[in-house]
Specification:
The protein is of the alpha+beta class. The chain has a domain at 102-186: Alpha-Beta Plaits. It has four helices and five strands, in the order αααβββαββ. Strands 1, 2, 3, 4 and 5 form a five-stranded antiparallel sheet that branches. Strand 2 and strand 3 (133-141) form a beta hairpin. The chain is elongated and about 125 Å long.
Length: 190
């Protein structure tokens, strides 16, 4: 026998329930996402408004400080105050130089200096704009190996910064040492 599918109903039976349930679930998920997005948008808008208020307050403070600074610069720029300004700058530079402790420099160098490296000379330390002390020194050794060890120890020590080799001099007939001029940042707090 041959079976022929025949539906005599006026409306054929359709299976719409799973599609409706899936559509309802998607609509609920999208609604939740919409409310979360709206919440995030409103909170960020509120934070942006607070940030703008703080930024306006800071800009007003900066303008006040700039006005005060320009007043002070105008006062200090007068000819009658030039001598006092020059003297105070000179005294401040002297105080800054005196605040560098030679004893502490030599104690810190003694901690990192290998036994077979000699400190030949140290120039007067200089202070840069970031209040970092720059040591310029001459070291000597019978061979180059110990000086390389000194460089490694200087760069590994917390009180010293990057080390730069400025120049080197091989031994001569009168001087049996390899000499190296070294520049290194020194982290002594002023």
């Amino acid at each position: 026998m041959i079976k022929i599918p025949l539906n005599l109903a006026s409306d054929p039976f359709r299976r719409d329930r799973p599609m409706l349930v899936a559509s309802l679930a998607a609509a609920i998920a999208l609604s939740i996402t919409l409310f979360i997005s709206l919440g995030i948008i409103f909170s960020e808008r509120h934070q942006a408004a607070e940030t703008r208020v703080q930024l306006d307050r800071i800009n007003a403070d900066v303008q006040k400080v700039t006005a005060q600074q320009s007043k002070l610069d105008a006062t200090m720029g007068r000819p009658e105050n030039a001598e006092v300004l020059e003297r105070s700058l000179f005294l401040n530079s002297l105080i800054e130089r005196k605040s560098i402790s030679w004893t502490r420099i030599f104690a810190d160098l003694a901690k990192v200096m290998p036994y077979n490296v000699r400190l030949v000379s140290v120039r007067l330390p200089q202070v840069n704009n970031q209040n970092q002390v720059l040591l310029d020194m001459m070291v000597g050794a019978d061979e180059p190996g110990p000086v390389l060890e000194l460089f490694k120890k200087l760069e590994g020590a917390p009180q010293f910064g990057p080390t730069t080799l400025v120049s080197s001099t091989p031994p001569s007939q009168t001087d049996k040492l390899w000499k190296y001029r070294v520049s290194v940042n020194y982290a002594q707090k002023l």
